[in-house]
Amino acid sequence: MSRLTGKKVIALVDEEFEDLELWYPVYRVREEGAEVHLAGAEKGKKYIGKYGVPAEAEYAFEELNSSDYDGILVPGGWAPDKLRRYPKVIQLVQEFHAAHKPIGQICHAGWVLISAKILDGVTVTSTPGIRDDMENAGAIWKDEAVVTDGHIVSARRPPDLPPYGKAFCDVLANHAQK
Fold first, then answer.
1. Which pLDDT tens digit goes with each residue over 51-86?
2. Catalytic annotation present for 107
3. What is the mean pLDDT of residues 19-33?
4. How far are the Cα atoms of 8, 90, 150 from residue 114, in angstroms, in the given order?
5. What are the residues whose beta carbons fall under 8 Å from the beta carbon of 164, sequence distance 6 or more?
6. Backbone angles phi, psi at 87, to 5 degrees
7. CB-hemisphere CA count at 13 Å for 99?
8. Which one, of 50, 163, 178, lies nearest residue 104 by Cα?
9. Backbone phi, psi, residue 60, to 5°
10. Spatial CA neighbour of 79 closest among 175, 14, 5
11. pLDDT category of residue 178 using cuts at 50, 70 and 90
12. pLDDT band, residue 25 (cuts 50/70/90)
């Protein structure tokens, strides 16, 4: 039995997600035994990544209940600027935060956490391009491949995916033991 067997994770999708920043963590978490559900504004819609890789939403945001899941992954690219406009996405991220369930964010995904107003006093990283946004939201920003602060795991960009995937799985596994 893999260490994440029985765990369920939401991976958010919208147009122009960063292809690697969605799929690498999804496959990494699945590799460890967790079930990952892709969620978008429209169930069954095929969203296209920045480099043309599709991702079909298995669920609509509105169908999801945070209590049914153990973690959430927010990809980068331009999708976060769209994702943060959905009240249900903000609600889900806030509920995961309140329950101290693992939240993974990479690159521009920090925009979603900013809009959820959960970064005050949290140590994170992101693409340097949104460093000011992160700090203005109260975050303590570090230029490191991966930063884990409690249940929030953040990374800068695609070259950081291997340590990011491992760190998210580690936090998810440790949360599972509670």
1. 999 999 999 999 999 999 999 999 999 999 999 999
2. yes
3. 98
4. 24, 10, 17
5. 25, 104, 106, 145, 146, 153, 154, 155
6. -55, -35
7. 21
8. 163
9. -90, 150
10. 14
11. very low
12. very high
- Rg (the chain; Cα; Å): 14
β-strand 146-149 against 152-155: which pairing, if any?
A: antiparallel
**Interacting residues of 85 by C-beta distance below 8 A, sequence separation 6+:** none
Q: Return the ∠ at Cα 67 (arms to 63 and 69), rounded to 5°.
A: 80
CB 155 within 8 A of CB 164: yes
Question: One of 37, 100, 107, 175 is an active-site residue; which one?
Answer: 107
User: Is 37 considered catalytic here?
Assistant: no
Spell 121-150 as b/e; 16+ CB within 10 A means b: ebbbbbbeebbebbeebebebbeebbbbbe
Q: What backbone torsions phi and psi does residue 75 show, to the nearest 5 degrees?
A: -80, 165
Q: How far apart are CA 142 and CA 134, in angstroms?
A: 10
| Rounded (5°) CA angle 135-76-80 | 75
